[in-house]
Design goal:
Hypothetical Protein Ta0175, Chain: A, domain 2; 5-stranded mixed sheet; OB fold (Dihydrolipoamide Acetyltransferase, E2P)
């Protein structure tokens, strides 16, 4: 038995297949076999010394990355190989077959010592990075000067690539997505990475190069708030279009009845009035480039009645159709961009209406740089009031200085410097992670053109005209407008619809719902001892109801309004008193009764 304990367990794809007494040698033999092409190049072999287990992985779903094999402190890839590759004599696959390059997964990588650069190589190293950018994902590698940022912020920046408003596709005018966004004046990145060139990101741009100053501004950019220049917005900064699609089908029903696109007539059930249908054409569809407000009708449609009509006085069955028109959604007014009439899969007439809204940046809209420096617009300042330099340069955006130190996004500062140098030199600057243009080079470009190499400039207050104490760091950064628009999130109501079951206000913006004052919010009022406000929020503004309660039985009594009689269902007594409660509580009492529990209310003050 002690001998069996020394044997290493061997697993293939997580299944124990046997034991081996020389796991290190077996590992080396398998790796050699893989490098010489005897076993598949996608197999990975990892020996865990601490648990004495050997894992062999060949299953799908593993993330692998290529690395150059290093033996005795020297990479197997030589200049000769690179020449042959350039001349097309050999291919990448040949290098993999020869065992010069191999693919490692996360598990085998645990046992590897990988050098970032050839100059780092020692006898202990097992592999060498082809290029350190290979560590990063496709999206992360598009963040310039990434190696100077904190990992968490790099992740945030990468996440917001997917939320940026840009050109989603060149055929955006033909597309019929439910929702769509389009940035009006997208720009080429002044500071780029090689990954962007490979993906041809500049052919589908999603940024604008903002002139950014890092300084406070009268408290309007507290915390993560940003200040925007009104003059820049009027010149097209951050301007975008929002597209919303509405659709309807002429449905067929059993019995030969169908829906119909038309302008409903007065006899139609649910007819709204002439004003509501005046924007519709004869075919029941709204006209192209017609302006529609929220809740306006874009597709006029009538449906057959839900039930068969009774025979009229002349012995003829008169069909009374009902209105089932499509209206625009709340807060999404705009111009009709496109109307498409076609046939659905089952041969029914099918219409789509695309509404276009121009969205100007406003207070509450979200912007972000590629370094996770996201922020919400706190104020839009008149151009005359913006701080300016001696050259008359006014920033498009003012960022709070407190956003930088705690987040350690030095990449953002370097991009500002590189963007400024790129503007002055008239060319794009390479900011590829681990291969970027060094800070010293950027400083030389700035110095040669008469600017302070630190990127700082003297600013004057646009309101008072006085010189601002201390120099302000300013530069050019690629900023993205994100699709979180305050116009689409704004929600408020006074009185409105309630749910049938609980009689509490409905939930959600589309249903004209209230803002939820939840348990935690209620606890804050309890903590402050604000009992009247607590009562108002949870009872008065929610589902207040006055129920009759029997003094003897303690259950909810019956109020028979037809016979004008108030009595208890259990004892039949008429000693019942009105009690104010939440309808949700009354519902709870009913649910308990359904479970076979009889809750009783004890009435004290009967005044």
């Amino acid at each position: 038995m002690p001998a069996a304990r020394k044997l290493a367990k061997v697993y293939i794809n997580g299944r124990l297949i046997g034991f081996h007494n020389q796991p290190e040698k077996l590992t080396q033999d398998l790796i050699k076999a893989r490098r010489s092409g005897k076993i598949s190049p996608i197999a990975n072999i990892a020996f865990h010394e601490d648990t004495n287990e050997l894992y062999i992985n060949t299953d799908s779903g593993r993330v692998q990355r290529p690395l150059i094999v290093v033996e005795n402190g020297k990479p197997l890839l030589t200049e000769e190989h690179i020449k042959l590759l350039k001349n097309g004599k050999i291919t990448w696959q040949d290098l993999v077959k020869e065992g010069i390059i191999e693919y490692l997964d996360a598990e085998e990588e645990e046992n590897a010592l990988i050098a970032l650069d050839e100059s780092e190589l020692s006898k202990e190293h097992t592999h060498l990075e082809i290029n350190p950018t290979g560590i990063l994902s496709v999206i992360s590698s598009m963040i310039p000067y990434l190696e100077h940022n904190m990992a968490g912020k790099a992740l945030h920046g990468a996440k917001m690539f997917k939320q940026a408003v840009g050109i989603c596709g060149i055929n955006y005018n033909l597309r019929t997505d439910t929702e769509g966004y389009l940035l009006y004046y997208p720009q080429k990145n002044l500071v780029k990475s090689r990954a962007m060139d490979l993906l041809e990101l500049n052919a589908r741009p999603q940024i604008q190069n903002f002139v950014v100053a890092i300084m406070p501004f009268y408290g309007f950019n507290t915390l993560d708030a940003l200040i925007l220049n009104k003059g820049a917005i009027e010149r097209g900064l951050g301007r975008s279009a929002y597209f919303r699609m509405y659709e309807a089908t002429e449905q067929r029903y059993p019995g030969g009845q169908t829906d119909k696109f038309e302008v409903p007539v007065e006899e139609t059930e649910g007819y709204l009035g002439e004003d509501y249908y005046k924007k519709l054409g004869e075919d029941g569809l709204v006209q192209v480039e017609q302006y529609v407000n929220e809740k306006d009708i874009v597709i006029g449609k009538t449906s057959p009645p839900r039930f068969l009509e009774e025979i009229s006085e002349f012995g003829v069955v008169k069909e009374k159709r009902r209105d089932s028109s499509i209206t625009t959604r709340k807060g999404k007014s705009g111009f009709v961009d496109k109307v498409v009439v076609t046939e659905s899969e089952d041969g029914n007439k099918f219409a789509k209406v695309k509404v276009r809204s121009t969205m100007l940046p406003e207070v509450g809209d979200k912007f972000s740089s590629r370094h996770g420096q996201k922020g919400v617009v706190g104020a839009i300042v008149e151009e005359a009031d913006m701080p300016f330099t001696a050259d008359g340069i006014k920033p498009d955006l003012i960022l709070n200085p407190h956003s930088i130190p705690s987040r350690m996004t030095i990449g953002h500062l370097l991009e500002m410097l590189a963007g400024k140098a790129g503007c002055l030199k008239g060319e794009t600057i390479d900011g590829t992670p681990f291969n970027s243009t060094p800070q010293k080079e950027l400083e030389v470009i700035l110095k040669e053109r008469g600017f302070n190499p630190s990127g700082k400039e003297v600013f004057y207050d646009g309101i008072t005209g006085e010189k601002i104490e201390g120099k302000i760091f300013t530069g050019v950064v690629a900023y993205r407008r994100l699709f979180h628009l305050v116009a689409h999130k704004m929600q408020a109501r006074s009185r409105g619809p309630v749910q049938i079951l609980t009689r509490q206000p409905t939930e959600g913006k589309e249903k004209e719902g209230g803002l939820r004052f939840g348990e935690m919010e209620g606890e804050t009022l309890v903590g402050h001892g604000a009992s009247m406000l607590l009562h108002e929020k949870f009872i008065e503004d929610s589902d207040k109801v006055v129920e009759l309660v029997c003094e003897k039985c303690g259950i909810i009594a019956i109020n028979d309004q037809i016979r004008n009689r108030k009595y208890c269902a259990l004892c039949g007594g008429s000693k019942v008193y009105p009690v104010e409660m939440s309808y949700g509580f009354k519902l709870l009492l009913d649910e308990l009764k359904a479970l076979g529990i009889l809750p009783k209310l004890l009435i004290k003050d009967k005044a």
